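Suppose a colleague, Dr. K., hands you the sequence of a protein chain of 308 amino acids and asks what its three-dimensional shape might be. Before reaching for any lab equipment, you can write down a predicted structure in token form. Begin with the sequence itself:
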Amino acid sequence: MNTRPIHIQKTFSLRAFHLIKRTIVKHLKDDVTLVPYGSMITGCHNENSDIDIMIFFDKCRYAMTRSQRINRLAKVFRICKTQISAEKMMFIGTAKHPVIKILLNIGGIDIQVEICAHNPYPVLCTWIFKSIIDSSIDKTTIRQLIRSVISFAREHRIHGTKGRSPAISSFSYTLLVLYFLQQRGYINTWNSLSSNLGTTSVDDEDLIQVVMNGEDDANEDWSIDESYSELPNCFDLRQEFLEYLLSILREKYRVISIENNFECPDKRTLLYVSNPVNLTNTTDTLSESKYYRIIDVLEEELEWTESY
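The predicted structure, expressed as tokens, is then:
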């Protein structure tokens, strides 16, 4: 397990990104744009976070089919396999989102890289999360809180969307934390200004164009006022969040949305945490057994901390 500070982890991860970017741009005949996304970009990464890369094929400004993405990624994989010295490398075309996984060792530290293709949603969500966090004068505490919550979930096995009893992903936990901070008045409400965002009928081709225009232009498609509220220390804030999450889960069928004026979908699920781009449920795989386990874990944690 890596033990270096998280800022060192980010430095080496970005080195890995630029290595892969140079290799693919040099050897792939197609014109491509590689965009890093995920926790490494929002600043919510930990010492073991991977670096996520989305590759867009510049001449294909339309939404690709699954088979098209697999074929393009297969070409990228062959280039990486022959041009990059890696500890491990595999292409998983059968995954829900086809992905290339590469394990690099840079400066004595293992860096896990995941490359997907032509999917604008995670990139836009990364930029949205980053703009919301950066709107606070206490952005460092917010990032610490998100890391702490996700680490807590991993330690107590209430994290992840795979296996027989899926729980909640890092993406959904981040949305839950941001929603909690909004409800407590620590940050302001995020609003979509563009017809291309925040609707169930959003067009993938429009979103691809937004991404291709770059992060600065994308930030003009939404707004959030700066917040000057001072936050409590991270431990107290985490406990406050866990109490809030427990109250939400006990209600059942609760809809959580960081958007303003969000209309509740006509679906009854254990928990609905809305994707800010297309309003789909990011916790739709949450199993009933894991739902009740999360409640048990939260109750036990809060009871333990109250006793001290």
